[in-house]
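User: Could you write out the 3D structure of this protein bound to manganese (II) ion? I've included everything you need below.
Assistant: Certainly. Input first, then the structure.
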Amino acid sequence: MLRKQHEYRWEGVDLLRYKEQDDTFRDVTRQVLFRNAPDIPCEWRYFEVAPGGWSTLEHHEHTHWVVIFRGRGEALLGDEVVAVAAGDAVEIPAWTWHQFRANQGEELGFFCLVNSVRDKVTLPREEDRARFLANPKIRKFLEADNGEE
Ligand code: MN
């Protein structure tokens, strides 16, 4: 299936697959606008989740600074499910579970700043999943996965 292109593109910036080799997400694109100035050892990326899509549910040691740029959706942040919309700024501290979902009928586009040197992401284990599902609000948030993979 070829899903429609989005118009939030920058000149000379490639539209990349969100992640190269896993199926933990759905309909997410990645663009890297800036990378590694000598005095800013960071990457400034723009991600866009198409309506109905989601990013990987993960955690890791490195911090994200996220600014929502387009549309609306919801995010899992630790034990909370929060509504997010254009203009909101979100800090994701070390080892905080996070996932973004475009589950409000619109694209969800956001800038995400990370250090260029960072650890690999960790995915939930069986016991983490069980803990998420025991929380009704998180279960509802994750339920969109059901039957769609
Ligand atoms: Mn992350």
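The radius of gyration is 15 Å.
User: Perfect, thank you.
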